[in-house]
Every structure is written in structure tokens, then in C-alpha cells.
Amino acid sequence: MPDKVQIKVTVNGVEHHNEVEPRLLLVHYLRETLGLTGTHVGCDTSQCGACTVHLDGQAVKSCTMFAVQADGCNLTTIEGLGSAGNLHPVQEGFWEMHGLQCGFCTPGMIMAAVDLLNKNPQPSEAEIRHALEGNLCRCTGYHNIVRAVQYAADKMAGKIGAAADD
Amino acid sequence: MADKLFGKAMKRVEDPRFITGTGNYTDDMTLPGMVHAAMVRSPYAHARIKKIDVSKARSYPGVLAVITGQEMKDAGINGIPTGWLHPGIKTPPHYAITFDKARHVGDIVAAVIAETRQIAEDAAELVEVDYEPLPAVALGSDALKPGAPAVHDDVPDNVCFTWSIGDKAAVDAAFASAHKTVKLNLRNNRLVPNAMEPRASLAQYLKASDEYTLWTTSQNPHIHRLLIAAFIMGIPEHKLRVIAPDVGGGFGSKIYQYPEEIIVLYAAKKLNRPVKWTARRSESFVTDSHGRDHETVAEMAVDQSGKITAVRVDTIANMGAYLTTFAPAVPTYLYGCLLAGTYTTPHIYCHVTAPFTHTTPVDAYRGAGRPEATYLLERLVDVMAHELGMDPVEFRRKNLIPPDAFPYQTPVALQYDSGNYEANLDKALELVNYKALRQQQEEWRKQGRYMGIGVITFIEACGLAPSALVGSLGAQAGQWESALVRVMPTGKVEVFTGTHSHGQGHETAFAQVVADELQIPVEDVVLVHGDTGRMPYGWGSYGSRSAPTGLSAIVLATRKIIDKAKKIAAHLLEASPDDIVHEDGKFMVKGVPDKAKTFFDIALMAHLAHNYPADLEPGLEATHFYDPKNFVFPFGTHIAVVEVDPDTGKVKLLRYLSVDDCGPVINPLIADGQVHGGVAQGLGQALLEEAVYDKEGQILSGNFLEYTLPRADDMVQIEHDHTVTPCPHNPLGIKGIGEAGTIASTAAVANAVMDALRPFGIVHLDMPYTPEKVWRAIQATKPLSQAAD
Ligand code: FES
Ligand code: FES
């Protein structure tokens, strides 16, 4: 078995020190080593985006990286984005607009949408669709995902008040 | 009490866990001492297994066991049975791990169990299988040719079954005397369902009690328990608990009793350790049950007046290498019986031949048979309308079943209970502004732009029932549903259903209805599903049965609760139960509103039983087993508008509008969401998706690079509305909506693309309409419009 490598990663504000196999994918490090199972694995060809997390503020597909490549980095996963009672506007948008059904693509979809809004706070429908091209959803037909992102953009621009019950 | 929740777009109670990453899918689970399984799969579509040498794999550090098919057979593990039998059907055994031959790419030949998934996968590579590759056959019609390689030695002609419905002589006569006939050769492309959550199974065996638990990605955990207990492993049914926790989409692909579920159960006992297996997507592509895959000759006859007189269909429906749980039902009762569609066609005949091939087994995929029926019928209707020089909408209108004809007996067994098709069609036409669209199409054609408009009407039959009927048709299952409604001493309510929600939002929609029925806050209701250890029984979720069958059972159980609560209230209020009314969340004496008890008062007294009717059992819970009288028959009109770029062959969706009739809508947010997702899946079949096999039975589109799912920019915002025609035979008048989008949209998009290509003289192309296919088809013609220019 290959020698293990020591890494230091900050995930959702918490610093972790672990010995990992060099071939361990970042997504498996998050799910199996740290137990952060909100980040999902939907494919083995980097096509689905279910594994999307933020690495130093940028959306990345965590199945396309080894854990060792994240050494010294700052990661945010869906668990660190917001919590019940303190949701990120994008999470709130997905809830308000029924942007999810089975929920499997949702963490990756939300992380990709946050990344979009960080870069482009008022995207057009076409820009939203284009930005989410790397994230597959088999349930929603994307209709309400688009609306969820529009809701979040409006919310972040102060155009929408507090949501009814969260 | 607050306003009624039925009909309210309540946001979903299941969402907080999913949007915060705290859902609980099977692969998210870890048990103490858990080990991992990896499968050794055949790279050949057909090969004799001459020898398996597991020694290298077995001695790899961290490997605990390497399991072969022979070992499991010797241990008394039987094959996996199908759940639907036709007369004369061939059911060759399907062992979880094959030991004689591999019959499709991905067929399991051994399983490695190891301390980690990585070790299991590494060691799987070390299992040495000596294969003798054999000729394979992938296409249904090829499998039926004389001399084709047999998939199963005891089925030398590969014919699993043949089936037919309708009066052939009457149909032939109608064709003989027809004014006009049209004929299409259609290929209904094979699809891979691709739920975003890959399949996973985790098994635990407890030695002390000799009990097993299986957590698995399933739409129907009770069916698994029954099949495993009664047929496959002989585990006493009460010693096996099957749990389907959060499941990331199913679409039919999580009905089937899969081999891996048997393997992890077997290994968990053998090693006395919990064993988990999770599919990689590349495994999903070759082992999740596929959908569709028909080769069909479809014909339609009309009389002088433009009335359809007959439809004749001959289909080869590819079963794949083994029979899945419901595969035999799909191209038969869910297909041939739907060929009347929304039309008054008096004579219909459908003949189906179902061959085995060296491909992944096929099962129900969203819509299951009904999209295939709708596609062929609506293609025929468009082609015939064109032949007759009629507008396709007017041709449809002429043939629709009129509203006063219900209940309507079709010539293919089904009796539609209710419908109002023309009103639904008119609403859709008005919303889309059909006349203006046709004018725009004319103008665009003059400019050399190719717009296509596809209008289709459809019905579906869902919530298969009653059980005696489906049993007589071959089902090896009941199709009733159970509900248990349990009121706790504090007035909180647990509702147990035998259906399963894997994206459909039952935890919300069903709670809304229960809250209405019991007149309590919706927050006081929780829905429990997907665990054989908790609910009375269940046949699971598929065929859009959860609302019409499962929720109806729940409603009838809540009504038993109300009846009992009235007796308790009557006792407490010293009145007759007949004088108690249930209003505003209270049980009160009719006309005396201040003589009232709250739901909480009743719940508490039912449990304390201190001051209680002498002849009444304590407690407040009710079970109901509901067997519907008939299927339910949702219907609708879907309209797709596309533009084809003749230079690239690219099809662009411009608009999509649907008007669905699923009866009264419980939660429009959820119902509309089902339509959106269904439409995208159906559009995927029309434009993008196909499981392509080569002659050797290798899948050429076995990953997301080659198998194209609809992505966000393939879709548009869907325009959507309803008409409401209640089902006359269930307590809420509800029908199903889970499959409507998929049933309708493939045909709507296909007709739109063919409409766009009409100026080129193209009458029919097989799906999917990829740019290359469309471009080549255009190149092969002389564009009439150009000639005109
Ligand atoms: S799991 Fe990373 S892209 Fe699919
Ligand atoms: S919500 Fe199921 S895959 Fe997107």
C-alpha cells in the first residue's frame, strides 16, 4: 500500500490534520474521513457536479482532485454554507421555489449556484442555465432550480424580505 | 382550524435536511465494523466461464472473502424471480452471481469483500476469470433470427414470451376497407434511467437474534423482503428488515430486486460484519435496469370522414439478458392496453414478441409502456393528419372520446372512468396561441427558418388495480396499499404508508391531507415510509400509484380515527355519537359549540381511558388496506415548439406547454415539479439519450460523456396549467402525476421536430434527434423550401 501523506485542511472553519493515501479523492476524504456526507458522488467521469464544494472560495468538483491537493486549503461544503434557521439565500431559494426533489444533486447544485452568484450577482436566465451546465439533475427539469437561483439573487440584492418560516 | 391545506403550494418539509447536506442516503451510512464489497463483472456480453481463480485476490491484504456463484448456489441461494408472469413465459434462472456463463456486460461473476472499498476494488482486479467469449446479440430482432446465439440454453429461440390483445380479424377487416392507411417503422430507443443517486446496499446480520437488516436504494422495500424471504434466500420473512432511507431518485430503476442486495446479505452473515456496496456510475450504466427498447411496425386506418377505424401494432420488446421484477408487464398491459389513447378507435390489435438478448435487463422506466404507446400513437396521428391534409389538431379533435362517453370501454381492455379531453385540448391551444404559432411558422419558413409545433393528447393508466384484476393478468403481487395512522397521547400523529417517496414529496403532500382530515396543524403530522419494520405492509411506489392508492388508504384510515374519536367525544360530552360533529378542529355536539372537545383531549383520553366508553378499545390508531376499484386515468395535452437549424441539425426547444389533468391537485408546487422533471426526461429520450450497443453487445454510451442527459441549458421554463376532472372511485378524486410529463413529452417533442422537418419531405426519423442525425437527414433530401425560394 502506498505511503500515507500528512495533510492539513480547513473545512467549514475547522482545521483537520489527517494521514491520507495519495490516491484518496477529495470527495472521499470529505465523506469517509471527515464524515461530511452532504457532498455526494454521482458519477466517475467528472460530469455530474454532485460533488461540488468550494476550495478557497471557488467551486470545484471534489471528485476531480486528490485530498493531498487540498493540503493547506480552505474548504466549504454544503454543511458549512448555512444551517436550519440560518440558511444561505441560495438554500432558502431552493426551499422556497421547490428547487429539489430527491435532493441528491442539491448540495452540489447549491454550491455551484453560490459560486455563480459570487461572480455574477444578477445573472440572466441564460447565464444561470449556462453556469449550471456542469451539474446534472434528473428530477426537476431545472425549471425550479432556475427560479431558486433567481430568488437567491433577488434576496441577496435586498429585493426580498425574510422568508416566511425559517 | 386554519384554511384547508389541500391545494396549497406548501413548501416541503423534507427539504431542510436536503438543502443542508443532512439527508441520509444509503451510501452515507457507516456501521461499526462495516466492510465493503466490490463486484467482479464480465467485460463480455456473452462468455462461458471456464475457470475462476480467486487465490490472488483472496490473499491480498485486507480482503476478507471472495464469493463466487458456485459458492452461493451451493449455500442454497436461489435465483431472482420475476414479478409478472404471462402464459408460456420462459423464466430461466437468474443467479445473483453467475457461474456458468456471463450473459451481459456487467453480469457479476464474483464479489470481493474487504476492509475498505479501495482494497475491495483493487482485489477485484486480481480475480482471474478464464472466459471463452461467445457470439452475442444485442438487438431484439437480431435475437429472433434463426441461428442467433441463445442467451439461455433452455430458450434456444430467445423468445421469452409473446402476447397479444385485440380482435385481429376485425382490425384486418378495417384495414382492408380503409379510406387511407399509414404505416411507420419505429425504434423506441433504449434508455438508462440514471437516477442521480447510484444504487447502494448495506446489510447487517445480528447473530444473537438471527436477524438481517438491509438498507437499500429501493422504491419498494416490502417487495424485496418478500422476494428474498420466499424465493431467493429463504430467510424467514420476520427475520429480515428492509429499509429504503432517503433515496436519490428511482424512475423505475429501483424497483428491481438486484443481485448486489443478495450478495451483501449473504456476505454479512458469512463474515458476521456489516457489508456495504455502492455502485460507481459506470456500473450503474450496465446494471441498473434499462427502459424502452422497442422495434415496432405501427399502422393506422381511417375512413372517408377522417375517423380512425383501426390501429395495428407489432412490437419486438427487448427484455435484456434476464427478467427483472416488472419487465413482462411493461410492453404488454402497460402498452398494448393504452393504444386507444384519447381516441374512439373501434378496432385495435397489438402483438408483442419479447426476446432475451445479451444486454442489461430492462424494467419499468418512468411511464413504463405508456410513453412507448403514446409515442407510436401520436406519431401515427400526425403522419395520418398530414396524409389527409388536415391540421393535426383538427384530426385529433375529430377523433377524441367525447365527454359524455364516460365510462368509456376501449377495445383493449381498459375502461376509462372519466375524462374531458377536448376541453383540455382547447385550454392548451388557447394558452399557447396555436393559430398565431402556425402563422409564425409560415413566416419563418419563408425566411428559411424551420419551426416545428408538436401537439399531442394523451391518457395514462396508473395506480394499477384492483388486485384481483392485476393478478389475473399475471402480477405476482397485490396492488392495494396499506396505511396506519397512529395518534399519540399528545395528539401528534404518525402516518405509516407502504408507498415510498424518493423525490415526490409525500412527506409534505400526504401530511397536508392528513392535517385537513384530522383538522390538526400539519406540523403535528409525520409521514413514515420505506421500512418493513414499521408499517403494516406495502407494495411501494411506481406507476404513479402513491397518491391514488397509497394516499387513499391513508384518508380512509383517518376517517376511522374520526369515527372512533366521535365515540370518545360523545362519551365525554354525554351525547350520542351521531350528534357529534367534527368542525373547526373540534368534536362538538351539533348546534352546541361550547360543548366541545379538542383533538388533543380525545387523543389523551383514548390513551388514559379513565373516563371512557365501556365497549370501546383504548388507543387511537387505525389501519386501512385499500384496494382501488380501477386504475386512474390522468390525461392532458402537451405542446412543444422547436426550431431546427438546417446547417447544424441542432434542435432547439423554444417553448413547452402542458395542460395536465390529474384530478384535484394536492400541492401545486409538487405536482408542477413532477411535470417539469418528467418533461425533461421525455425530452431527453427525444433529443439526447440512447443506450447504444454494438454487435458484440458492448454498450457504447456507458457514461455521461456519451450518454447525454438533459442539462440546464437544454430546457426552457415550462408553461403549465391544469384542468380538473376528478376520479370517480377514490375518496379524494385524485389521480397520478408522476409519469405524465415523460409519457407526453417524448411524443410532443418528436412531433415538433418532424413538423419542423416537413418542408424537407422527411416523414419520420427515429429518436434521438441528435444534430448529426438531423443534419444527415436534411442532407439526404432536396429541401422543398429552397426549391420554392
Ligand atoms: S461525482 Fe464529481 S462530477 Fe460527478
Ligand atoms: S433533485 Fe433529484 S437529482 Fe436533482
Automatic annotation (TrEMBL), chain A:
CDD domains, per the entry: fer2
Keyword annotations from UniProtKB, A to Z: 2Fe-2S, Iron, Iron-sulfur, Metal-binding, Oxidoreductase
Keyword flag Oxidoreductase: yes
InterPro entries: 2Fe-2S-bd, 2Fe-2S-bd_dom_sf, 2Fe-2S_ferredoxin-like_sf, 2Fe-2S_ferredoxin-type, Beta-grasp_dom_sf, Diverse_Oxidoreductases
2Fe-2S ferredoxin-type domain residues: 5-81
Gene Ontology MF terms in the entry: 2 iron, 2 sulfur cluster binding; metal ion binding; oxidoreductase activity
PANTHER family per UniProt: OXIDOREDUCTASE WITH IRON-SULFUR SUBUNIT (PTHR44379:SF5)
Protein name as catalogued: Carbon monoxide dehydrogenase
The organism of origin for this protein: Meiothermus hypogaeus NBRC 106114
UniProtKB/TrEMBL annotation, chain B:
Domain Aldehyde oxidase/xanthine dehydrogenase a/b hammerhead: from-to ranges: 20-135
Classification via InterPro entries: Ald_Oxase/Xan_DH_a/b, Ald_Oxase/Xan_DH_a/b_sf, Ald_Oxase/xanthine_DH-like, AldOxase/xan_DH_MoCoBD1, AldOxase/xan_DH_MoCoBD2, AldOxase/xan_DH_Mopterin-bd_sf
Keyword Protein biosynthesis recorded: no
E.C. numbers: 1.2.5.3
Keyword Oxidoreductase carried by entry: yes
One Pfam family matching this protein: MoCoBD_2
Keywords assigned: Molybdenum, Oxidoreductase
Stretches of the chain forming a coiled coil according to its record: none
Molecular function in Gene Ontology: carbon-monoxide oxygenase activity
Protein's UniProt name: Carbon monoxide dehydrogenase large chain
Source species of the chain: Meiothermus hypogaeus
